[in-house]
Write a structure and sequence with these properties.
The protein is mainly beta and about 200 residues long. It has 2 domains: about 110 residues, no CATH class; about 70 residues. It has 1 helix and 18 strands. The protein has a 5-stranded antiparallel beta sheet with strand order 1-18-11-16-13. The chain has a 5-stranded antiparallel beta sheet with strand order 4-7-2-9-10, with no helix packed on it. It has a 4-stranded antiparallel beta sheet with strand order 5-6-3-8, with no helix packed on it.
Length: about 200
């Protein structure tokens, strides 16, 4: 490998790792991410579609009521406003509901459609990593991504993935939290005593 080739490779690695301190991270990566999908009042449908052999698990709640359109007995009505279930082998489950979609929790690869419009896709690879560090006092933080986010090896029990796009956590005492995500990322809270490191496109 020539000196020019080494310089090019080194520059590529540096471009994938970005460290930001303090308020420099606010508003990173463009516009804010919209919250959970909602539909107009009236009759709506929500469809859960498995992307392969692996099980795609879900739990959702609405402000109105839910009716089963296409699912099996393993999909359970927690109450009239909440259902949890699973689908695999590229099959799908479908429900009708009134009101708005209030919460949506997903695990595994699959897609979610509300009124036949794609609102979540968990089949995309989590190619990016974010590391949040504190040098002293405990600090609470919240961030959102345009793709999907999951806890990495250093996230603690007090750190919560609110839905597949939003994280609320805290870190302190020289602690470290880490997450894997896809898409872009936006922090909603002031970043005063924190150092945030972005490791991008790790899947390439």
């Amino acid at each position: 490998m020539t000196d020019t080739d080494r310089d090019t490779e080194s520059a590529g690695r540096l471009a994938r790792r970005t460290v930001l301190k303090g308020a420099a991270l606010a508003g990173l990566a463009g516009s804010a991410v919209s919250g959970s999908a909602s539909a107009q009042s009236g009759e709506n449908t929500i469809t859960f579609e498995s992307a392969g052999d692996e099980t795609f698990r879900y739990r959702f709640s609405v402000t109105g009521e839910i009716e089963r359109i296409r699912s099996d007995d393993g999909d359970r009505f927690v109450d009239e406003k909440t259902v949890e279930g699973a689908v695999s082998q590229q099959r799908l489950d479908r429900f009708g509901f009134t009101g708005e979609l209030r919460s949506l929790e997903l695990s595994g690869p699959g897609r979610v459609f509300v009124n036949d419009e794609l609102v979540r896709d968990t089949t995309d690879p989590l190619a990016n990593r974010v590391v949040v560090e504190s040098a002293g006092p405990t600090v609470r933080y919240r961030f959102r991504v345009t793709g999907r986010v999951e806890k990495d090896e250093f996230a603690g029990d007090d750190d919560t993935v609110v839905d597949s796009k939003t994280v609320e956590g805290e870190v302190g005492g020289e602690g470290v939290d880490s997450y894997r995500y896809s898409g872009s990322i936006v922090f909603d809270t002031p970043m005063e005593p924190l150092t945030v490191t972005l490791e991008l496109n790790q899947g390439e």
